[in-house]
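2024-03-11 09:14:02 INFO receiving multi-entity request
2024-03-11 09:14:02 INFO entity count = two
2024-03-11 09:14:03 INFO echoing inputs for audit
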Amino acid sequence: MRRRARVLAALLGVLLAVLLLTTNLPAARVAFALAICLLLPGLGWARKMRYGDLGDTLALAIVLSICTTVAVGTTMAISDAWSLRWGLAALGAVALAGFVPARLIADRTGAAVRLRIAAVRLRMAGVADDGGAWAEWYRETQQQVKVRRARAATPSEASAVWVDWYADVERRAEEHRAREAAAKQAAVEAWIAWYQQTHLLKRSDRRS
Amino acid sequence: MSTEMLSVPATEMPTTTPEATTTLEILPPLPRRRGSWRIEYWLIILPMVAAALWSFSFRNADPRTMGGLGLLSLFTPVTVVALALLSVSMLLCLHWNVPERLLSLNMVTYLVLIHGTPAVLYGTVRYPWSYKHIGIVDYILRNHSVDPSIPVGTVYHNWPGFFAGSALLTEAAGRPNAMGIALWSPLAFNLLNLLVLRYVFRGLTRNTRLVWLSLWIFFIIMWVGQDYFAPQAMAFALYLVCIGLLIRRKITRPMLAAFVAVVSVVAASHQITPMMLFIAVAALVVLRRTPGWYLPIIVAGATAAWGLLAAPGYTIPGLRDIISELGKPVTNASETLDKAIVANESQLLVVWGGRVVVLLATALALIGAWRSWRARGLGMTAALLMALPGALVLITGFGGEVLFRAFLFAAPFIAFLAAAACLPKDGRGFPVKNLVFTALVTAVLLPGFLLDYYGKEQQNYFTPAELRAVDWVDTHARPGSLLVEGSRNYPNQFHNYERFTYVAIDWEPPESYLPLLDDPVGGLEDWLSDPRYSDAYVLITRTQKIAAENEHSLPTGALSRVETALRSSPKFRVAYDSGDGVVFVLSEPEGDR
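2024-03-11 09:21:47 INFO inference complete, emitting structure
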């Protein structure tokens, strides 16, 4: 799922939750019970399997959630220690534990690589972000061109004003793209060099 | 190096590769048809129109008027048109190889219509057995524990997983009982099965068309009705997930952990599913369809641990039964076949509807297996998993249900191989001749499925008035009461169930019930006067009478005659009458008894 879709799904979920809470409390409670017993406990654990398919992840999430709910309920029932509060707390704990990036925490090298990737991405994002200068220039010159076209004596003169401005826009956009590509290339090369130095060389040292 | 490579580190790449069981399946799927938007538009509209027509056709339907063919007797030509439209839409989706979202729209619409209609139309939970399970959840909600020493429903207290989980869900939802959950269970379990089966089939093939055709065939052959509020419905989904985890080429540590968790829950929830799971896992490991020699040991260990440590009082006597039934496939299978009651033409149609579905689907599956084998690949895993449930018949009769359970476990793989038989030999495309063939197969299987799935609804439907009568008894009776029922086919034991000793007239031996039918007043007066019971009731309901007639468990009109006799006798009085259920007690003051 793309990030935008995830954000959209989360927003819709929150909206639905708010709607349920504000309109009908019993229905909201049913919806939350279904989510906390039949979806959330297994969701994080299912994602850890990295199937790359929403349907497969959802199937595993529901089944693992059912297993968690059954395990918690059975433990409480056979040990004569039934408590809704503790049961829900246990389900919540399992759900949260599923989202803890345990492998990332345990694997420092992996964590370092990911952080570096994040840094490269951030740097690339910075390239495109000129603080709004480009948009500002575009708006200003567009206004100027409008005024100049209105003042032009002949249609051909008006057309020439517009063509000049368009060429200017294209030239600046091309320069911007070139700068961005160069920065990206530099960032990627820096990442490769860093990775080779810190990981590949280490491995070859270990082998030797 | 491109930036895309950075965005997907190698460690995040999917670790699972579907097992290629035939050379056909190794081939990459053809590019999806780039048809105009109109095709997709129509394939969205068609299921919606079908749903609207279906809903319209049931607008004035009254479930009380159902005849011998159950819910089918309420079908109108519009209902049939709706179903035909939905089938055509599904097959066209497959023919045009549209995106999965459209296939899932069609499939979900079908499931909602077929399995959601009884919930909406009846407003009450189907099947008498569902109510027993609601009763166990009710017990846990009231007592916050289980008690394996209770003589009624002992097995449920020994394998309480499903009920304890349901109790937790019910209490978290703020509901007083599990009726609401049970009402929507058939639909919920079928939707879960859709997800889980897609997961399993994606482990067998990468051909999306084969996956969805298998799903379609599964849902038009699965008539055994094991999707109600019951441990086996949950255990079936868990069994499929275990199989799905194992048929991936690589089993990672998270997958192994999931397998152990699922197996443990199955072991604590049901008796026959761990047996089937052990057989399947052992066969997959022995025939090298999955790595991991320790997997059958995990299943056997979890099953034995629960059986011997948590449920020894039930397991050890149960083992004796299994040993006595072991190696008697004919006797075990006959137990199921003997249960099929054919007293009139409608029942004959219902019984043969189901049998034709099984025979045709199995024949198609054998063709599919043979074609896979001829293609030098052999869908070995699917064929194996289809054949293995047959081993259950060698082990147990399972109270006359073993053939149903064997079909239940085999059905996903029957559907998979049958779908392979419907597709072209090279696995590419879905040309018109295959489309027509599949449409013909659907035209035979779907009515057969509907006959058997809906055909017994006359006695599976309970009116709200009937429920009120049962609830009155359950609420008013003191612990240690006697409840004499006309038959077991009514919404029984769903509240305070442990308070009663149950005596069903039609379950009594003939030497016991025949004198009672000759003299209902005298016979029941004797039964109800037994000083061992604090209170004593006779309960006769609408569906008890229907079941006794349909199953011929009592002579025609016997329960009506008993009811008339009790109403006219001064020795009995009506304690509660809801119209569809009447409760009798002895007229004498309780202190005199």
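2024-03-11 09:21:48 INFO post-check: The radius of gyration of chain A is 28 Å.
2024-03-11 09:21:48 INFO post-check: Residues 109 and 199 of chain A are 8 Å apart (CA to CA).
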